[in-house]
Amino acid sequence: MGATSGGLWGRGEQQDFRSRVRGTLLGVALGDALGAPVDCLGLGAIREAHGPEGLRDLVPAHGRRGAVTHVTQLTLFSVDGLIRAQVRRDTGAWHPPTDLHRAYLRWAATQRDWGPDERREEDGWLAREEWLYARRGPSRPLLIGFGDDTMGTLEAPKNPAEAGPEAVARSAPFGLLVGWEPQLVTQLAVECAAQTHGHPVACLAAGAYAVIVHALARGDDLDGAVQKALALLAARHGHQPVSEALQHALGAVRQGMPTPDRVEELAGQGTAAGLLAVAVYCALVSEDVRHGLCLAVNHSGSSGAAGALTGGLLGALYGETALPPAWLAELEGRPTLLVLADDFAMEMTQGPALHGPTGSSPAWLARYPRGTR
User: Fold this and answer.
1) How far apart (Å, rounded) are the C-alpha atoms in residues 179 and 169?
2) What are the φ/ψ torsions at residue 222 (nearest 5 degrees)?
3) How far apart are CA 176 and CA 70, in angstroms?
4) Which helix (H) or strand (E) holds 345?
5) Which CATH class is domain 36-54+163-327?
6) What pLDDT digit, counting tens, does each position of 42-70 carry?
7) Which one, of 99, 73, 103, lies nearest residue 88 by Cα?
8) What is the dihedral of CA 149, 153, 157, 162, to 10 degrees?
9) Where are the domain boundaries for CATH 1.10.4080.10 in the chain?
């Protein structure tokens, strides 16, 4: 698997990339926070609680407005794992799925432990962020998948019957590996999805989502990004449900004004493929980020995952400045999100200067240790 050398980036390109990285991670978190209070409520119940237009603004969940769930937590640990993989590459230990698995096990420890005092130095800085120890309803497949040290693989996946959206919802960071070839981005997301959601629909939806984000982060428009995903999916066994869901989303764009009923139809049974279709549709028809996220969360299903997936697409497409400032001001964990986003952008553009053959930064290696956990 390849990675971009820092010497290939101009200053303007670095600034654009950082904006898209920030936009993607903040977009995921905003969509997650918007959808969390109505997650898995019926559309009728959402309208009864929030008016005939449905949910239009952040409302309290988990004791505050702007609270995020395990979807955002795991997305952050995806980023942490990717940075650690790049750092560990210098040692000759280059197997990103393993580094991601170790990162997810660090997340799983936050769900068992009371706080960061129990973390070791080699766990790095993110695992010592106290706010990440909040338990925000992680599902059984996640807790089983990361419940022991055995890593699920494509040959022996964890939860092989699980086709839900939680693996795809943590996969946006894979798409930010803009120096990688699209096929490798897809493969990494697919392999990492198998660690908790082993059904082919869940794994291939994660791969498709990652490669759509990848194309957006490289400057493509959304329609072109989806076409690239469809082309890559076509070569993979069992791709039909995910490809059909994406085609359905593209077709729905031409069927008139967007409505919650259309979003519900695309979501279907709430599989990873259905929620991916919702995200693509809402991002394509949105007037702006706020409109797209509201459209995504007002349906009878996994509103948090739908919002997170849509936010990741819109953030990668437009960058951080397109996100609603009033929502960002209330977003839980925003300082951590920004630091991690900037660290990721710096690693991807300046990695050789941080830990290369000519020298390394002790501070960087303390933040992202080369240890085995």
Assistant:
1) 22
2) -70, -40
3) 20
4) helix 334-355
5) mainly alpha
6) 999 999 999 999 999 999 999 999 999 99
7) 99
8) 100
9) 36-54+163-327
